[in-house]
Amino acid sequence: MKTAQELYNERMERVKKTIKLEKTDRTPVVPFGDSFFAVATDLKLSDFVLNLEMSNKAFINGTKLIGDVDAASGVCSAAAIMGTIFFSNIKLPGRELPDNMLWQIDECQSMTIDDYDTIIDKGFEEFQKDYYSKRINVDFKILKELIDNGTQFDKNMRNEGYPIYMGGKISHPVDYLSGGRTMAKFILDIRRMPEKVDAVMEIITDYNIKVMKEELKYSVDPLSVFIAMGRACPDFYNPKLWERFIWKHLKKITEAVIETGITANFHIDANWERALDYFKDFPKGTCVFETDGMTDIYKIKEKLGARMCIKGDVQAAKLTLGTPDEVYNYSTQLIKDMGIGFILSSGCSIPPNAKVENVKAMVAAASGK
């Protein structure tokens, strides 16, 4: 039997080679899970989000439960601090919600038009401090616990033989502004005051790049940097607006990640088919296109398969409503059709009501067992 360190090294090499579009012994599988691990290990969601030590154990035990996984998507729940990304209040199980209800982003207008001027005048770091403490319900106790114990949580996962797929994270400025202003008002803002909004997005982008580079200094064996951009879908904007307010900043973020020598992992929500050609700008083997199933994975393969790794895309509906045979067959077909440079994964996060046997079937398809 292989030791945890031997498994760690084997899995790390398999994922790294796949990202570089090199042939490996088999397709790696890296499910993207959070709340599912709580349900699968009989942990209340309230404990999962409010007790990070219990959350870390659920991630580890849940990852071991589902089979021969090649890397962990995370090490504990970040639900309690999601407001720092979306500039919105978060409703949590065990706090505003029943113990086993999934957390929710409570989007309402918390930012004003004057806040654009404040960010321009004082910078994003100073604005964040005031915003988090006075306007939204960031749980600073959990934030401190994550900062203090995050390194140990990472180590606990690695000690079980699992590399950590996301060695760092960086958010596109659209998520902050469309959350704090609301999506509807943000769309009006980029029409009514485009120069000001663009300037603010540039400030946020530069600050986030700086923070990302600092955080990577403390990351052990980072495989990728998770690029979050939930509100960046090109179907939400006309092409000119998308190029100016989304792509320009996404390209700058991506180039900064690539400069660090770490893989840029695009977490792609919704349908990006009309923007696929833009991603040809980046050097071969430096990025991963992680799709949630809304973008046709075969079109991604056609456009980008020769340039970057593709990750996905067993959809939530299949994992919750399908049978193990259906999931296994779909996953097996993906592996066959995608070929070299493919990481099998769930399409976005595994839902909390996914059937454990279905998730196991997805993982088993990678090894053919």
TrEMBL record:
Q: Which Pfam families match?
A: URO-D (PF01208)
Reading the lineage from the top rank, the first entry is Bacteria
Residues covered by the Uroporphyrinogen decarboxylase (URO-D) domain: 179-366
Named from the GO MF annotations, one term is:
uroporphyrinogen decarboxylase activity
Q: Which InterPro entries match?
A: Methanogen_methyltrans, Uroporphyrinogen_deCOase
Q: Which GO terms describe its biological process?
A: porphyrin-containing compound biosynthetic process
- Put simply, this protein is called Uroporphyrinogen-III decarboxylase
